[in-house]
Amino acid sequence: MATVTELIRRPQLGSAIPERELIGYNSGLRHVWNSVQMVARTDSSVLIQGETGTGKELIARAIHEESQRSSGPERALVQYEKTIQTAFTEVSDSLIAHQRVRESRKRQEALVAALQDRLRLAYVRYRGGGDTQLNALDADRDLFQAELDLSQIRLDELLTVVELYKAIGGG
């Protein structure tokens, strides 16, 4: 039997390989094309096996294009299923992103609470003469930066909610 690489197509052709568009004829090529047409008339699933580079994808495309499944309700069903799979993937990705940002916000809130305690203690030590004003100001600066980061994370969390609504179909 001829390899599929003998099915040479002209560049202007679409994805199908109709017999009338084949370049060259031989008994092996004719046998391959007859097999494609025979399989295309059935509703059976087909497993195409062979070595890498032998053109299995060309045969699969030809079988599909020659079959009744290449148009009509079956094609619409396949497209509908792909759309649903894409929608579920987008919703899943949005939920995961939202969960990660929410966990990040909770960690940042805990850090802000710890830095508020540090700030309070730094000023108590400063007022009591046990520490320098520089350490109290460092605690101020660290708390301010943590609060800025928390604000950004809260914004990111709200944006993930918007993305989730979009993925669900809300705009």
How many domains? The number is 2
**Hey, roughly how much beta strand do the residues contain?**
under 5%
Poorly predicted runs:
1-16
Shape, principal axes of CA atoms = rod-shaped
Determine Rg (CA atoms, Å). Answer: 32 Å
Mean pLDDT: 82
What's the total count of β strands? 0
* Number of H- or I-type helical stretches: 4
Cα separation of the termini:
55 Å
Order of helices and strands: HHHH
Which structural category fits the helices and strands?
Answer: mainly alpha
Helix coverage percent of residues? 55-70%
User: In this structure, how is the largest beta sheet organized?
Assistant: none
Q: Which terms would index this structure?
A:
single chain, 68% helix, disordered N terminus, 2 domains, 171 residues, mainly alpha, rod-shaped
